[in-house]
Amino acid sequence: AQSVTQPDIHITVSEGASLELRCNYSYGATPYLFWYVQSPGQGLQLLLKYFSGDTLVQGIKGFEAEFKRSQSSFNLRKPSVHWSDAAEYFCAVGDWGNQFYFGTGTSLTVIP
Amino acid sequence: DAGVIQSPRHEVTEMGQEVTLRCKPISGHDYLFWYRQTMMRGLELLIYFNNNVPIDDSGMPEDRFSAKMPNASFSTLKIQPSEPRDSAVYFCASSLGDSEAFFGQGTRLTVV
User: Fold this and answer.
1) For B41, left (φ over 0), alpha (ψ -120 to 50), or beta?
2) Which residue of B has its CA nearest to A38?
3) A90 forms bridges with which residues in the sheet?
4) pLDDT number for residue B103
5) What distance in Å separates residue A96's CA from the closest CA in chain B?
6) Does the CB of A42 have a partner CB in chain B at under 8 Å?
7) If A100 and its partner were Cys, which of A83, A94, B22, B106 is the partner (CB 3.0–4.6 Å)?
8) Which comes out higher in pLDDT, residue A52 or B30?
9) What's the DSSP call for residue A80?
10) Which of A43, A46, A103 sits opposite B42 (nearest CB)?
11) What confidence score (pLDDT) does residue B42 get?
12) What percentage of chain B carries pLDDT values higher than 90?
């Protein structure tokens, strides 16, 4: 069965430090992969997506993610975190026309 | 386009009352999704429509929940009767075929 796992429920990083949020998926075929961000009181915003091609995907706000088929992972990274990056981050796998599965989210706290 | 519009943004109701959540998808989108987000279960897909037709409602928790899409520009999610465990943030999202979903800002439901 398809599923998405975000092993880290909560992460705290210092402003300016690098960030990596983990995402592992279980999917029978080549997945469509997404990272969304949800700021307090806001809806979900798409950060980046992977459909095919280059496995290193660039997104908005300086984020990037790398699709590693051998590890069934799609980890989100940012080289230098800003205080405004504090939010909830969701990884998702999609098979448009059928289903769209989310992880349970990782809450990011940024300390000065 | 103003994006996916959900109303109300916040709803507080008493147990046993009927609650109706509303969603206006992005014009031209042919898929509409209803999600529920809770701390315990993360983000769950409740039901989705394609061209106004419900395709998969297996995520609807029980018969108290129902969703309709009478036309391409409007959908409702109804809970009758509501219970405290229904308290959550409910998201609506829409997409055009094989593309990413755009989310509304959500409706925060509190059942007391």
Assistant:
1) alpha
2) B105
3) A36
4) 85
5) 5
6) yes
7) A94
8) B30
9) S
10) A103
11) 67
12) 67
Measured between beta carbons, the chain B residues lying within 8 angstroms of A102 are 35, 42-45
> What would the pLDDT profile of B35-60 be if each residue is shown by its tens digit?
998 766 767 889 989 999 998 888 89
Give the pLDDT of residue B39.
Answer: 63
From A93, which residue of chain B is nearest by alpha-carbon distance? B100
**B95 → closest Cβ in A45, A90, A96:** A96
Q: Specify the residue for token string 């995907």.
A: A57
pLDDT (0 to 100) of residue A39: 78
Enclosing H/E stretch for B100: none
Q: Do B97 and A96 touch (CB under 8 A)?
A: yes
B70 φ, ψ (degrees, to nearest 5): -70, -25
Listed as ranges, residues in chain A with pLDDT below 70 are 1, 41-43, 95-100
Phi-psi label, residue A105: left if phi above 0, alpha if psi -120 to 50, beta otherwise = left
Q: What sections of chain B are H helices per DSSP?
A: none
Q: Where is pLDDT greater, at B13 or A43?
A: B13
Among A79, A109, A98, smallest CA distance to A9 is for A109
- Mean pLDDT, chain B, rounded, equals 90
Number of Cβ within 10 Å of residue B45's Cβ equals 21
Q: CB-CB: which of A43, A99, A104 is closest to B42?
A: A104
In the block, which residue shows the tokens 């796992």? A5
- Cβ <8 Å between B45 and A96: no
Q: For chain A, first and last CA: distance in Å? A: 41
Residue A12 in tokens: 């705290």
**Could you tell me the two tokens for A36?**
């969304």
